[in-house]
Amino acid sequence: MEKVFVVILNYKGLEDTIECIESLKKVKSKYNVSLVVVDNASGDGSDDGIKDRFDDIIMIESEANLGYSGGNNLGIRYAIEHEADYVIIINNDTIVEEDFIDGLVVNYDKDTGMCAPIIYYYDNKDDIWSSGGKYFKFKGSYSMTKGKIDKPTEFDFASGCCFLVSRNILERVGLLPEEYFLYLEDTDFCYNIRKKGLKIKVVPQSKIYHKVSKSTGGKSPLNIYYSSRNKLIFILKNFEGIKRTYAFLVNYIIRIFRMIQYFLLREKKLSRAVLWALKDYKKIGKSTRKF
User: Fold this and answer.
1) Which of 100, 156, 242, 257 shows its CA 20 to 30 Å from the CA of 94?
2) 3 Cβ partners below 8 Å, 6+ apart?
3) How much is the average pLDDT of 198-207?
């Protein structure tokens, strides 16, 4: 029986993580499913709360907050070491349908690099938050799609909120890129999968529900900083020549206009976050800025 390891990253999210685990434990699957929870150095006792509540999950405790990729990579490495056939990454602020795992695995074939579910809003379960995404190469920008699909459909990328990859793909492409710390690591990962000539597929038979922007509070300085900084990092990392120059200039100018806009709207913290992003884009990993 093929092994599927589901990795859930927890950072100060006890209630969300418990609800996510309880949802996952109701999943009906023909595969051998293991749940791996990685606590990303929460420091608030949520790791103990999870261990006290569940004695049949695998718990990994990081000594430092490694960000989205670094934390999830701890779980991915564990899965690979224990002979996983597939790894599912899923946000802790989600709940799932009972058949969501099998819907992903059965649609995975030799030409596929990633399968992802359709993601609905947690508070409005008829409303789609993401059904894939498109990438605009010359601008170095991207846009999520929210339309309904009735069959597995290829997209440029899928949200890092939830996706399935095989062990083979992880060995070919590598683990999640850790230089971003937060945001765009999923876009980068998908970009590298597609460079191998493989498909990113969204599967309508698989559904989950997401408490959108719970971890960073929506349009917060933290959100604005990392999304602004990391767009520039992504372009510098993945583009070359005229394409890189053009995309970088377009995005840099957009960030300047955003900074001015926030300032005029008297949202000084957001304006300052963009300014820091423009100063820090050559840095990688976690920022030392205080938000």
Assistant:
1) 156
2) 31, 32, 34, 82, 83, 84, 85, 86
3) 96
- pLDDT value for 291: 78
> Mean pLDDT over all residues of the chain?
93
- Record the tokens describing residue 122, joined without a space: 């947690």
At residue 214 the predicted structure's pLDDT band, cuts being 50, 70 and 90, is low
Given a cut of 80, whether residue 218 has pLDDT beyond it is no
pTM of the model: 0.94
From residue 227, alpha-carbon distances to 121, 122, 184 in Å are 21, 23, 7
- Give residue for tokens 């949520």: 46
pLDDT above 60 (res 43): yes
**Burial of 1 per CB tally in 10 Å (0-12, 13-18, 19+):** exposed
Pairing of the two strands 3-10 and 86-91: parallel
Alpha helix segments (H runs only) across the chain? 14-24, 46-53, 67-81, 100-105, 167-173, 185-195, 221-238, 241-264, 268-280
Task: Write phi, then psi, for 19 (nearest 5 degrees).
Answer: -65, -40
**For the residues of 87-154, what is the DSSP string, one character each?**
EEEEETTEEE-TTHHHHHHTT--TTEEEEEEEEEESS-TTSEEES-EEEETTTTEEEE-----SS-EE
Q: Reply yes or no on whether the pLDDT at 217 is more than 60.
A: no
Q: How many CB atoms lie within 10 A of CB 157?
A: 25
Angstrom distance (rounded) from CA 80 to CA 74: 10
Beta bridge partners of 114: 200
Name the β-bridge partners of 88: 6, 164
